Amino acid sequence: MLIKMTTLRLRLVIGFMLVSVPAMLGSAYIAAQLISDAFEDNVEQWLGETSRFFSLDIAEAQQEAQRVASVVGRRLEQTTDDQKMQRAAEGEFAVLSTVGYDLIAIYRPNGEMLFKTRDFTSIGPLPTETGQGLFRIEADGKRWIMAGAVQSVDLNGQQTNVLVGTWLDEAHLGGIKVVTSLDVRLFADFDGQLQPVVQTHPDRRAAIPKAIRARLAAGEERIFEPAADGGNYRAVYSGFRGIDGGLAGVSFIGLRREAGFFEQLGQESLFLGIFVLGSVISILVGLLMSAVLVRPLRALTRGVRAIAAGDFDQRVPASGGREIAELATGFNGMAEQLGKLQALEQELRRRDRLSALGQAAMVIAHEVRNPLGIIKTSTEVVRNRAKLGDSESKMLGYVIDEVRRIETLIRGFLDFAQPKAPVMTAFPLRNVIDRVAAIAEPELATRKLSLLVEDKTDNAMIKGDADQLHQACLNLVLNAMDAMPEGGVILATVTGDRETVSLTIHDEGDGVPEEIRAEIFNPFFTTKAKGTGLGLAKVQSVAEAHGGRASCESPDGQGAAFTMTLPRVESGAAP
């Protein structure tokens, strides 16, 4: 546990917490205060919008009543006597009563009532001019407040008024009742007292403070009270004008204080909750930041261990800040240089081995060539002068053939161990493969093979020894022929760019296994039963003597492709 406590990442997290906790305390206090204030503002706005919606709904009911009264008035003006008017009114009003209008009446300015859908008494005089607003009505043994309108018409030369209205009762609340947390009350002014006519919660207190009533009567449209009804509500009061222009009703749209989530929590609980939440977030952020900071260091650590193990191809991402990025860049540069030094060391070791091998081969060759010459000469003399039988003569022929083969092998050792300096001339690389194709044509035909040449460089020029390059290219073609005992097509392709020209010999054989691909250019490495292992080594040696390189690619199931890449020269280069 003590070891874990001392890790860099944990120390970073602890340091982050020590820095962030004081700031978190202040932030939590400010956030709690801001959230509480924002909640109050949002509640005030929400209640104000709800009150405005309620007021607009009442105003819309008045406007609709005005339109209906106007339509009814125009139709009544077309009648010629009171009896026709009454029959027409009964038909029209029967329809209107079925669609929700509670009171429809026709009267004259002198108080004469021509028609009414129910018995009623108006609290206050009925208007004699066209207008809309709230009416206070007594009907069916109850007092109502009605949203309605009056339309003044001319019936047979006499002014007549059409009254249309609908009660403002619980059925009028509509969708507001769905919000159960809201307390909606509508008060009407009867005999100078505001009496409740609509309440979503009848069991709760119902009263409008005198100060609120006075302010609404003075002309204020809406009043927000954060501690209404004895501090139990946040509420908005709105006033409604009667048909006479006076204050006829007051609405109360309230939200109980315990209904608010933040109010139930309290500012102290809210502060504590924000602090705890902020602390948890700080820990998570600390863990994330520490991981971000430590990750590049871990990558560097893994890279150093890989380099120590000899993996010079290891690279680390240059991230984690300018300093760490510079360190990672420097590490990658060091790894690249170490890789180059390793490759150079391997090449030097290979050259040392080849040099030692060449020296040994030269000594052996010189020591063996003289005895071989004596053996060959003596054998030929014996076969020519002695009278031997067919079997003995044939055996001496075998000896001579084997001596010649050994001489050829020794000559190859000497050519590889002590190559001649190339005689450099400028010529198209295409000439090399054309010469090989001409020489190998009979052997290719015998083996049912064909050699196709493609020059994609338009006779690109190189500078080199034509004979040495011919021998190297011939070795590649011979290897391709050996890889295709059943016949097929050998493709020779000349490609290039601004700096190099390449000759690729591609066969359709079994390819080169990946596990031996790195060894095939080493001298004396061969997979053939009678091979010497010097063919590809000679190709590599010739390519390097010309400032180029040899390589092999062998995709699975696609044969092998051996490439010699040499420096390119301009067409007009001097020989």
TrEMBL record:
Residues covered by the HAMP domain: 291-343
Domain of life: Bacteria
Organism whose genome encodes this protein: Bosea spartocytisi
Chain ranges passing through the membrane: 12-32, 270-294
Domain Histidine kinase: 363-570
Catalytic activity as recorded in UniProt: ATP + protein L-histidine = ADP + protein N-phospho-L-histidine
Any one GO MF annotation of this record: phosphorelay sensor kinase activity
UniProt protein name: histidine kinase
CDD domains: HAMP (cd06225), HATPase (cd00075), HisKA (cd00082)
Compartments where located: Membrane
The entry's keywords: ATP-binding, Kinase, Membrane, Nucleotide-binding, Phosphoprotein, Transferase, Transmembrane, Transmembrane helix, Two-component regulatory system
Primary location: membrane
EC number: 2.7.13.3
GO cellular component: membrane
